Amino acid sequence: MTSLTATIPTALDAPGAQSRHCDTTGLKVCLSSQSFIKLSAVSAVVFLLLGGIAAILLALTRWQAVHLLPVDWFYRILTFHGLNMLIFWILFFEVAILYFACTIPLNARLFSRKIAWAAFAMMLTGAVMVDVTILVGRADVLMTSYLPLLAHPAFYLGIILVAVGTLTAVFNFFATLYIAKRDRTYEGSVPLVTFGALAAAIIAVVTLLHGAIVMIPTFTYSMGWTPQPDPMWYRMIWWGLGHQSQQVNVCAMVAVWYLVGHLATGAKPVNETVCRGAFLLYILFINLASAHHLLVDPAVGASWKIWNTSYAMYLAVLASMIHGFTVPASIEMAMRDKGYVKGLFGWVTALPWRNPAFSAVVLSVVIFGFIGGITGVTLGTQQINIIAHNTLRITGHFHATVVGGTTLAFMGLAYYVIPLIFRRDFVWRGAARLQPWLFGGGILMVSLGMSFAGSLGVPRRDYDIEPSGAFGPASHLFLGIMGVGAVVAVTALLLFCFLCVGTLLFGERNSGRAMAEWGAAQRLPGVREGLLDHDHWAMKGTIALTAVFLASFAVYYFANWKALADVWPVQ
Amino acid sequence: MTPPTQEPFLKRLMDNPWLLLVLGVAIPMLSYTAWGWVEILLVKPATLP
Ligand code: HEM
Ligand SMILES: [Cu+2]
Q1: Is the dihedral of CA A194, A198, A204, A205 positive or negative?
Q2: Of A490, A495, A449, whose CA–CA distance to A65 is shortest?
């Protein structure tokens, strides 16, 4: 079949286009974007590995019974962990997702290889500069590098390079969208995955602008060229970088949820407009939430704080809840359509649980929604924040979002990226099927251990809680739970890196045939497609789950108001 | 011939990445950054006791 686009030079199916045919999906794959997806993904996994090694050192230090590192190395490794995980692992993987989303689903070629090379070179150089500066002990300033703490100029320059490099990659993404639309390589609106990536890219622009605004004067100050920027101002602009980069993750993660849900069960968005509308809410409102980091700062007023963390931000929370509903709902509908109609949850047992990408995504939705989401909204409430600020509750919250949510979803995607882009089938498939469960279970323990210890007042970023004499056996128990969870999670992380590297080296090549299937939901014999098209209750299981979610949310939220009232009784 | 039909506003907005980019940058820049910046500028420097 020749398509209408075959005469467009920038289309992937044009004669002579630098593309190949994918034997699994039938799509055309842009060879340039394929190379940069590979480069970015491999670098991402290397930074994940570095961050993972740091993670176990930290957890075994905060676990007071072990208390592994000496004090200077604790803060050094904490700086290292934060940056390698939150910034490098996530940004490199996101760039891979962006290059995928603007080319393959749109049948368009990547705008520029040169720009992609420049972006990659800047990002990698910057990241290496940052890591080396930290490890030689010239940047013990933690990830946030709050002024007046001061690091070696190479640290700030490295971060600037990473930010500018990422921005350059984002530019390549937008330019590709532009030529694809101009040349009409696709028809109608962009696919949902691309739209999600677009949301991520827009948020990345806001993020990186803040990065430039804050890091350039800090760099010139560290060189002795300009006076010190105001520390309060620094905190505000820095969080425009630090928090908003997390929203880039959220968008990319949700796009991965939809993609893997589709690959593993054939799920189609319940209602495209609603899903896109939810991404639109992210684009417009999610970035305001950065203000929750300044909830105890004196220089910004209550109106600014409450507007930015509550009223306007709840629109973005609404968007997360929409995605949290439509992803399982679309999977449920796909399963019922295949004939699994028994009761409320009959479809759940028939899901392809042995598919590691799928189990990773389910765990990601559950951990992100039930733990990350509920704690996030609660901790972001100005009044409640005062009993949680700077405690391990905060760290417990974001290890549920960026680790249990984003990192796990990205790991899940890798189970498709490697066979489809690197064209090698996974080795040790049994271990791969287990990996997401181990990682999810470990992180759950880490997150809950941190959260409960934090509820008892254990601070974050604190080398040693013993001298205060304030913490009893319960606090130590929860720190121990965190420590054991960390051992499990980091083992699973190492297993993941091991599986990826093992596959790249020894995996069987699958060029010329479809990838080895992980397992997808099968249609029951004799069940006709579209049977449930007019059944408005085809998502009743998800509705029941949503009711449980909302009830947990309400209980947790009001329990925290009660806890606040107990701190400061009004008589 | 059918007259050209106008697509719904939301759909046109969502099909326009450039407008989304402008809005997505402008809203947080005003609500968070500019407003916060002004608040910080309005804080008077502490006088030493
Ligand atoms: C693999 C399992 C992981 C474990 C066991 C782990 C454990 C820890 C521990 C113990 C801390 C120190 C808490 C404190 O003393 O304040 C920490 C901090 C942190 N972690 Fe993780 N982590 C893991 C993965 C990740 C990932 C994947 C990310 C990001 C994507 C991440 C982001 C962070 C950040 C941003 C901090 C705060 C750094 C700071 O306070 O400056 N972690 N983590
Ligand atoms: Cu935040």
Answers
A1: positive
A2: A449
Distances in Å between the Cα of A244 and the Cα atoms of A87, A239, A402, A502 are 11, 7, 12, 34
Per-residue pLDDT tens over the stretch A200-242: 999 999 998 999 899 999 999 999 999 999 999 999 999 999 8
First-to-final CA distance of chain A: 79
Q: Are A263 and A355 in contact (CB under 8 A)?
A: no
Q: Whose CA is nearest to atom 6 of ligand 1?
A: A55
Q: What does the block give as tokens for A192?
A: 């949902």
Enter the DSSP assignment of A355: -
Which of A106, A205, A236 is best to mutate for the B interface (most B CBs within 10 A)? A236
Specify whether the CB–CB gap between A204 and A129 falls below 8 A: no
Closest C-alpha residue for ligand 1 atom 27: A403
Phi, then psi, of A424 in degrees rounded to 5: -135, 135
Q: A313 C-alpha to center of ligand 2: Å? A: 12
Tokens of A464: 């040693």
B26 touches A: beta carbon within 8 Å: no
Give the start-to-end residue ranges of the domains of chain A.
357-518
Taking contacts as CB-CB distances below 8 angstroms, the residues of chain A near B28 are 206, 240, 244, 287-288, 290
ipTM for this prediction: 0.89
B34 touches chain A (CB under 8 A): no
Runs of H (alpha helix) within chain B = 9-14, 17-28, 35-41
> How far is the C-alpha of A6 from the C-alpha of A17, rounded, in Å?
10
On chain A, the residues whose CB falls within 8 A of the CB of B17 are 174, 177, 198, 202
Does B7 touch chain A if contact means CB atoms closer than 8 Å?
no
Say how many C-beta atoms besides its own lie within 10 A of residue A259's C-beta: 24
Q: DSSP letter at A85? A: I
Q: Counting beta carbons within 10 angstroms of the beta carbon of residue A345, is it exposed (0 to 12), middle (13 to 18) or buried (19 or more)?
A: middle
**Out of A233, A273, A288, whose CB is closest to B28?**
A288
Beta strands A28-30; A19-21: pairing state? antiparallel
The pLDDT of residue A571 is above 70 = no
Helices (H), ranges, A399-456: 408-417, 429-455
Q: Indicate the residue of B17, B24, B43 with minimum beta-carbon distance to A203.
A: B24
What is the helix (H) or strand (E) element at residue A216, kind and residue range?
helix A192-222
Residues with CB under 6 A from ligand 1: A 52, 55, 58-59, 62, 78, 81-82, 85-86, 89-90, 142-143, 395, 399, 402-403, 407, 446, 460-461, 486, 489-490, 493
Task: Work out the pLDDT band at B4, boundaries 50, 70, 90.
Answer: low
**Taking the model in full, what pTM does it have?**
0.94
Distance of CA A39 to the CA centre of its chain: 19
Query: Given an 8 Å threshold on Cβ–Cβ distance, is A205 in contact with B43?
Result: no
Alpha helix (H) residue ranges in A266-381: 272-285, 302-306, 314-337, 346-349, 356-366, 374-379
Centroid of ligand 2 to alpha carbon of A93 (angstroms)? 20
- Which residues, 6 or more positions from A387, have their beta carbon under 8 angstroms from its beta carbon? A560, A563, A564, A567
Among all residues of chain A, which has the CA nearest to that of B12? A189
Which of ligand 1's atoms lies nearest the C-alpha of A459?
Answer: 16
CA A276 centroid distance within chain: 19
* Listed residue (A288, A102, A112) closest to A196, CA to CA: A102
